[in-house]
Design a protein that fits this description.
The protein is of the alpha+beta class and 361 residues long. The protein has 14 helices and 13 strands. The relative contact order is 0.07.
Length: 361
Amino acid sequence: MKIAALRQIDYPALAEIGFAALRFRPQTMTRRLFIDWQRRAVEGELEFYGVFDGERLVAAFVVEKMLEYFERLDFSLCEDLDLAMQNQIGQMLLDFLLERLPAVRYIEVFVDARSKTAKFFDRLPFHREAPLRVHGEDCEIARYLLNSLELMAPKFLFFPFEDGLFYVRCEAQAPHALVASNFLPYDESISDPYFVALLDRYALLDASLQVSRSRAETYLSASAYQAQLQAAPLSLQLAYRDLIRYREGPVSSFQLPLRLIGSPFQLQVWAATAKIPYGETRSYGELAREIMGEDSRRYARAVGAALAANPLLLFIPCHRVIGEDRKMVGFSAAMRIKERLLALENFRAAKFSAELDPTES
């Protein structure tokens, strides 16, 4: 069984499985609707998918792009499927939606209140709003909110630093490797709607939608956080262990599974950055020379652009790259966080060196 994009909308095949858009609208209206869907699909505003058991179409859904963080999904399921096949389709649909997070949050389904499609969605981890009756007929528009926070929360790790809350993320479908990390500065408003919802779930935001340092410290010291950590994928547990080590003393390098996706040049820059020792810095020009050779200062700007796209802050230590005049420039998180990280590393490195050789102090 597989999910496949449909290049052409097959009207008879959808009618055969009882596609909701056909069932609850007059035939002339549905044909106009399909013509409009075809046009919007060409313009990239809509995507059509089928679920196939061999050659047979057993379910279909349309994904409409409404806003940047909002998509609507119309779904229909063949009525003669047994429970095992429904459960398999349900897991496939959840996997499909997880890959699209945070865009897909809101799902609207035309269903007969007694249909298998209604029961199918009731078994999935969705929050269901009160259904709306349609024209007094024995059907409803059931609205579902994908409970993405429940599904995605174990794939995030939060860790407190002096000036911000650090997060690490791994893919829902590939939890063995880390794919993103960054800082959420304290006392700065969060604009990303997904992070607003995620952080608000754990009461980490104040009334101004800013990350509260006191709330973060309270939550991250609670038993609920430790329980979440124990249930997290091994990659996040290893990241937590290494973050504790980093905060407490010099760490030569992070030995973590990272999944980096970028251009060949970006990967080259990130690899060179990962080799900068704890407690040391490089200028953009120096890093460019290490990568490109002696006469390569003109590549310094390109190095800066590659580091600006660094998806794994701290683990790829771009905070150790500074301006030619030794000034603090170019950090995607707050500049005070970069300054704090370098100050912490310099202090820890100096202390560690003094402990190794007391005569130097």
